[in-house]
Design a protein that fits this description.
Layout: H1 2-21, H2 26-83, H3 86-91, E1 94-98, E2 101-106, E3 109-113, E4 119-122, H4 125-136
Antiparallel strand pairs: 1-2, 2-3, 3-4
Helix pairs in contact: 1-2
Length: 139
């Protein structure tokens, strides 16, 4: 879409300059000037759309990486919890599952992994369990 806008802007600009160059009156000159102005606006719009697409792509990549990082942390925490003595295991984030939902309990609260791959944060384990109960009640 951005490429089409750039092409359209170039054609507008060429048309506007051509109208101004070969005009013999005030109205064609105004129309040519308007075409040149619209071509500048079209280029700006194409640039904004390109920037939005780039930002969205970056945000999607950040979400994927944060999910992967959380899954790795959950797996490492579970391994640490099993391998270490109870004191060290108690200091680490403790993973758990409830009704098929996995969650990670840490000092900053609870992170619940949803079925669609999303994550939801809660301040306590009881809050997360109540949420799972509320969404699985109909199932």
């Amino acid at each position: 879409m951005g490429v089409m806008l750039y092409i359209f802007a170039a054609l507008e600009f060429i048309g506007g300059v051509g109208v101004v160059a070969w005009s013999r009156g005030a109205i064609p000159e105004v129309l040519g000037t308007l075409l040149v102005g619209f071509s500048i606006i079209t280029v700006a719009l194409a640039r904004i759309l390109a920037e939005l697409a780039w930002s969205r792509n970056l945000l999607e990549r950040q979400v994927v990486w944060s999910r992967k990082l959380l899954e790795i942390q959950m797996a490492q925490s579970e391994t640490l919890f099993r391998e270490q003595d109870p004191q060290v295991g108690a200091q680490a984030d403790t993973p758990g599952t409830y009704r098929g939902y996995s969650y990670l309990v840490g000092e900053n609260g609870v992170v619940l992994k949803l079925r669609d791959g999303g994550l939801r944060h809660f301040s306590s384990e009881e809050e997360a369990i109540a949420y799972v109960d509320s969404i699985t009640r109909g199932a």
